[in-house]
Amino acid sequence: MALHNRARSTRLLVVTLVSISLVTITVDYRQGDSGPLASAGNTALALISPLQEVISKVTHPIGNFFSTLVRLPAIRRENSELKDRISALEEQVNTTTADQNRLRQAEALLGLQESIGPKVQTTAAQVISSGVSNFEWTISIDKGSTQGIAVDMPVVAPAGLVGHIVKVSANASVVQLIIDPDSAVAGRLDVTGKTGLLTGAGEQDMRMGLVDTTTDVGPDERVVTAGYRIPGVATSLYPPNVLIGTVSRVVPDSAALEKFITVRPAVDFSTLDLVLVVLSVGTG
Amino acid sequence: MRRTLLLTVVIVTALLLQTTVFADVRLLGARPELMFLLTISFAILEGPASGTVTGFAGGMAQDFLLDQPKGITALTLTLLGYTVGLLRQYIVSPSPVLPVLLVAGGTFFGELFYGLVAFLLGQLDVTTLYLFRVAALSAVYNAILTPLVYPVLRRAAEGSRSRKVMRW
To answer: Which chain B residue's Cα is nearest to A28?
Structure first.
């Protein structure tokens, strides 16, 4: 009898907790980013981020060590490739310095310097944790609204574009990476200047859509942010000409309406440590 | 009282580890699901009621602290804790391999269930293949972690068990 009662009370417990979960799902689904649930989430983020910061300071080197072990063959290959590139680039540097001098003179002549050099304000932030889920690609950083960070601000790393701010609390914020399936970035092919839309595909390379089939694209071509501006209608989230990645694969298909291009991101998201948040894009 | 404290400490620790250490140490791109591991372990150790409560508390904590679609993890883990707790009653011979198998199976099906619910709510935007891949990989990862985590949890659970209650 006691066992029977126990089983029944457990069943009641399950039904109650499942109902609470379902209510939470519904409320969260209907309110989106602006309900009491979202602000509870923000408060929770503010509470847990200092703890994460402490732990990641201690464990980041250890984790890096292990992931380096796993990727050792790839790193060795990368090393020899990089050595080749350095020698190639060294040659180029000599020629480009001359070109740059000429360009600077030309710019000064035309009085373009101010309009080209935008007064971009940035703030550096430390990555304190990666997203926990296997289905979302986000990172948390240690700067928040007190440091002037707001939702939608672009985030970059020395290697290239990282993503944009999706959630802010007082001293921490969450960045949605460009490889998240929900992320879309307007990109421009470096050589032809044709634009397209880059969507994330998680661990796989990003997809670039809406590119004209007649466009001539080769592998290893650089893709940068397009940074469009339609006055009064829309302004792109990201500043123009930030490196997104390089073209990894082009599928030849003359029948399709758009080219199928995959792009490998320039940033290695698994080893991100310091990022820059772009606070304002001065247009000069 | 001691149970509540234990549960809070264990859940917070798991969340912190998952976002920091295990964010760096991945298995072919997949992270372990510590909260799944925790729920299944408690369900095996303490039965369906404890599994249910652990799953619900852990799921809610993960959803709120880590900015995920709220409630889905809680729903998944509540049901998972209850199911694994029920399965325990049909097990005749307790072998040391058993928790490993239950954790692997539970994580795999739990992850698929999570994917299904998130997909139905329009919160998930990945291919079915990816979902199966992640479910399989995190199941393997969790299974590997079980021999390390399970004994610790068992000791903690036995230590916090109130002395007055008879066990049968």
So the answer is: B70
Task: Please name which of A242, A222, A239, A243 lies closest in space to residue A283, comparing C-alpha atoms.
Answer: A239
Cα A65 from chain centroid (whole Å): 24
Mean per-residue pLDDT, B104-127? 87
Distance from CA of A111 to the nearest CA of B (A): 48
Question: Per residue in A23-33, pLDDT tens?
Answer: 888 888 777 66
Which residue type occupies A90? E
The dihedral sign for the CA sequence A193, A197, A200, A205: negative
CA angle B20, B23, B27 (to 5 degrees): 145
- Minimal Cβ distance to A132: which of B18, B24, B47: B18
The total of other beta-carbon atoms located within 10 Å of residue B149's CB is 19
| Closest to A153 in 3D by CA, of A26, A275, A4 | A275
pTM: 0.68
As a whole number of angstroms, the distance between CA B152 and CA B2 comes to: 16
pLDDT digits (tens, 9 = 90+) for A194-229: 888 898 888 888 988 888 777 788 888 889 888 776
What would the pLDDT profile of A163-184 be if each residue is shown by its tens digit? 999 888 888 899 999 998 888 8
- A22/B59 touch (CB, cutoff 8 Å), yes or no: no
CB contact under 8 Å between B64 and A134, yes or no, is no
Tokens of A40: 């509870």
Amino acid A28 reads D
C-alpha distance from A71 to closest chain B C-alpha (Å)? 11
Cβ of A52 within 8 Å of Cβ of B75? The answer is no
- The whole-angstrom separation of Cα A182 and Cα A233 is 22
With an 8 Å Cβ cutoff, are B71 and A13 in contact?
Answer: no
Inter-chain contacts counted by CB atoms under 8 A, chains A and B: 141
Is B166 a residue whose pLDDT tops 60?
Answer: no
Query: How far is residue B37 CA from its own chain's centroid?
Result: 3
Token digits for A4? 């029977």
| Partner-chain residue, chosen from A44, A62, A130, that has the shortest CB–CB distance to B19 | A130
**Whether residue B74 has pLDDT greater than 90:** yes
State the distance between the two ends of chain A, measured CA to CA, in whole angstroms: 80
Closest to B48 in 3D by CA, of A22, A16, A7: A7
Rounded distance, CA A246 to CA A187, Å? 11
Chain A contact probe: residue of B67, B75, B117, B133 with most A CBs at under 10 A = B67
Residues in chain A closer than 8 A to B138 (CB atoms): 134
Instruction: Choose the weakest-confidence range: A128-132, B34-38, B106-110.
Output: A128-132
Tell me what pLDDT residue B38 has.
93
Report pLDDT for A115. Answer: 41
